[in-house]
Specification:
The protein is mainly alpha-helical. The chain has helices at about 5-15, 20-25, 35-45, 60-65, 70-80, 95-100, 105-120.
């Protein structure tokens, strides 16, 4: 494996996400809550529940896999649609599964988001 082959593989992976721009954004190492909110303002809240054709995943799955995604970015998605946290991807996993392995801060954000939703419903 060379630096050039790594670069080519990364470019190929990024291009595979061209059909799912919100998912691609959620994989970005520079993701912020502001970028999430800007996307939702421009494309609507329905994009939170979008399923990409490659992984059968939601944007929340992608954020959960992204170790750079801040907990408040995850909370922004949960504020729009808390049910998305329970959706299975093509691997049969929910966002919690990925956050546990790749984004512990995001996992804590998900738990807080669920608790806030629960208390708001009471």
């Amino acid at each position: 494996v060379t630096d050039e082959s790594n670069r080519q593989l990364n470019e190929w992976l990024i291009r595979r996400m061209d059909e799912a721009p919100f998912h691609k954004l959620c994989c970005n190492s520079s993701i912020t809550t502001q970028l999430i909110n800007d996307h939702l303002d421009e494309h609507g809240n329905d994009s939170v529940a979008a399923i990409d054709a490659i992984h059968g995943a939601t944007p929340l799955h992608m954020l959960s896999m992204n170790p750079h995604a801040p907990a408040d970015a995850i909370a922004a998605l949960l504020d729009v649609d808390v049910e998305v946290i329970f959706r299975l991807d093509s691997q049969g996993k929910i966002s919690f599964d990925y956050a546990r392995d790749y984004n512990v801060g995001g996992l804590i954000g998900m738990v807080n988001g669920l608790c806030n939703h629960r208390y708001a419903a009471d």
